[in-house]
Amino acid sequence: MDRSKWFILATGLIIGAIAAVLVKLGNPPNMGFCIACFERDIAGALGLHRAALVQYMRPEIIGIVLGAMLTSLFAGEFKARGGSATFVRFVMGIFMMIGALVFLGCPLRDVLRMAGGDYNAVVGFIGFVCGVATGVFFLKRGFNLGRSEYSHSNAGGFILPVIFLIFLFFLVKGVVFNPDAGGPLFFSAEGPGSKFAPLGISLVAGLVVGFLAQRTRLCLSGGIRDFILIRDNYLLLGFLGIFIGALILNIAFGFFKPGFADQPIAHTMSVWNFLGLYLVGLTATLLGGCPLRQLILSGEGDMDAAAVVFGMIVGAAFAHNFMFAASPQGVGIYGQIACIVGILVMFWLGFSFREE
């Protein structure tokens, strides 16, 4: 392998190891990093939904965006850009989150769940691959959301990182605007939202992942897409590294528990594990990047990616307020309907946005 492939493999090993260490230090099991779950927790922390078990301002997400921003600034790669079907991307972000919460995890967490022995995640991974393959079908037919325009000023590209910096300030200072009702941040007293590693360690972990993911363009949907289209395995090596790094430490820490039943923050409804990540894979391919990649792009100044990130946060609010999100007991009828609707909407967009 050439040097770049060794670097992305090492990047994956580091991220997988960090994820396992974060679980050891307090993060929910098999959830050292989960972009969708953590953005869902942020939505709860902001009071956008009132699912009391999943409310926490996750420093890892803030760190990823800031790490990508700082890295791209030093590398001269930070450029404000946007205007490529921005509202469509926002809506697609909503559906990507719905698919992730039907499965109970993003593609990154899917790999971490497999590294913890969760066979349900294998079913989800197959669904994700099929979703990416469907997205590639649309790409081959000319799917295109349009070209992003570069701004004459980089100011717009700093908006999302600045918002997350404000969130970090609220988290560190524990600001309370309304002593009677709580807020602006809400915190879970029990459940996944109450489980977290120390704030400083979580923030540094996010910064490291943001730096590494920005330098390597780490993206699972992109890796599968590239392998299908041109048989390039560069990006897939990163996720192989994540799996190996997390697997080794999961075994060392005693976290590895193979099987379908009794997996942490997971359900055994195979059809919906498949379809949930199928929706995520399809949507991510049409958007040009998985949830992790959207965070990295937003840190680099991509305002369209920032719209996707906020779409996912709003999607998390919809998912819990309208009972779309799954639970360890399974996926309710509303979540099943929302997942199918999301897939149909992505098919409609896939056929509609085509270059002539």
TrEMBL record:
The record lists the membrane-crossing segments as: 56-75, 87-107, 119-138, 158-176, 196-213, 234-256, 271-292, 304-325, 331-351
| A Pfam cross-reference name | Sulf_transp
Transmembrane found in the keyword field: yes
The alphabetical list of record keywords is: Membrane, Transmembrane, Transmembrane helix
- Regions annotated as coiled coil: none
Annotated protein name in UniProt: Uncharacterized protein
Taxonomic source organism: Thermosyntropha lipolytica DSM 11003
The taxonomy runs:
Bacteria, Bacillati, Bacillota, Clostridia, Eubacteriales
